[in-house]
Amino acid sequence: MNPRLTLVSSVIGAVLVALDGTVLTIAQPTLQSDLGASFDQVQWTSTGYLIAVASLLVFAGRLGDRYGHHRVFGIGMLGFGAASAGIALAPGVGWVVGLRVVQGAFGALLQPATLGMLRAAYPPDRLRTPIAVRTAAIGVAAAAGPVVGGALVAGPGWRAVFLLNVVPAVVFGVLALAVRPARTASPARLDIPGALLLAVTLACLVHALVALPGWVWTATTAAVAGAAFVRHERRTASPLLPPDVIGSAAVGSALGMLVAASSALSGALFVGTFLLQGTLGLDPFRSALVSLPLALLMVLAAPSCAVLLRRAGARRTTVAAMAVLALGILALSRASATPALCAAFALVGAGFGTVMVAATHVVVREAAVESAGVAGGLQQTAMNLGPVLGVATATALMEPGGGPGLPLGVLAAVALAGAALGRKLPGRPGTAINDHGQSKDRTPVPARR
């Protein structure tokens, strides 16, 4: 598959997943009424999917490294489409929940592959633009999701929301499977015990963060399984997380920034919904219009970030963007008039969109081609855990009748804490990058004197 078709496939896969999540949120009340489901059952249509995705992303990335990202992407797309079709035909909410878990498992296969395919198709110095295009497309999907979901639910019904995925998933899944994968000189062994321990850790962590009954036990299980995973990874000959990925300070910092940024964004949006529709008394449609600058600036920030990375480097770009994100969240806590609200959402979108492109670029670029799938899996894991953590934090800090100042202030502090991690990222192009010789396909560039 040539680079342009690879980019299109990567964008379509990322957009399908992003669009599926946003339109489902709109469809859930109608789904609940149509199937006679309880609130807890409807909640599991999202929670079950999230647990399946978060627990399998890294292992799915390793599968792509071993068997080929196009192959894993194709299987993930076809499975995602088939599960979507099954949900559209489901006779009861139990079937919907079960098939959402299956859909999450296939979604975990395709998500790291969308980044792994780009890493394999483009040289490191040309990754900025493809990643920016992919991020901009996700921003468009996030903005269009509520509109598309509302139109489908009001027209054909909630089942049409899931049928929307089927055709593109089948078309691009078949195209990806038609590609002959490149031969791997030394295929990585699969660390099954490590994958199981990490899956249990992440699944229990997500379960605990969404505050379902029994969260204390799941949090304890996550801690025990996490400790066992770390011990296993230190002793095994073929770890699930290769040293060239987790041994890079730049990759670790970029992942931490993605968690902080996505946590701050999602928590702020959660609080912002209650601010707009509760405190300020706006109806849902007007609330959507007021927050539209967030999606617009996120889309515009993606191509702008590619230029900033080339001229200023990842360190300055991400630190400044995290500061803008924090400023936008603080402005949101004090805004009441429509122009001020729009400006606050614009700052949040510009900051988050820039961080997402820049940090993702670092994660994918710094990893060797042989570990691109694991790097993509870690990036997607960060982007899945961050929102859960942000919403959990916002929920814990919001008080009945209380204002948005405290939760939004804490979330702004989270963004600023993430900015501190930017010191470990590469500086301007032309300065030395200490990658410990792991990135075999890059020629070292001497430092300026």
Automatic annotation (TrEMBL):
Q: Residues annotated as region Disordered?
A: 427-449
Q: What is this protein called?
A: MFS transporter
Main localization is membrane
Q: Which InterPro entries match?
A: MFS (IPR011701), MFS_dom (IPR020846), MFS_trans_sf (IPR036259)
Q: Kindly give the Pfam families that the UniProt entry links to this protein.
A: MFS_1 (PF07690)
Q: Name one GO biological process term.
A: response to antibiotic
Listed under GO cellular component are: plasma membrane
Which keywords appear in this protein's UniProt record, sorted alphabetically? Answer: Antibiotic resistance, Membrane, Transmembrane, Transmembrane helix
Under the heading SUPFAM superfamilies, the entry gives: MFS general substrate transporter (SSF103473)
Q: What is the species of this protein? A: Streptomyces regalis
Locations listed in the record: Cell membrane
Q: Mind telling me which residue stretches traverse the membrane in this protein?
A: 41-60, 72-95, 131-154, 160-178, 190-208, 251-276, 288-309, 318-337, 343-364
Q: Sorted alphabetically, which CDD domains does this protein's record hold?
A: MFS_MMR_MDR_like
One GO molecular function term of this record is: transmembrane transporter activity
UniProt domain Major facilitator superfamily (MFS) profile: residue ranges: 6-430
Annotated membrane topology is: Multi-pass membrane protein
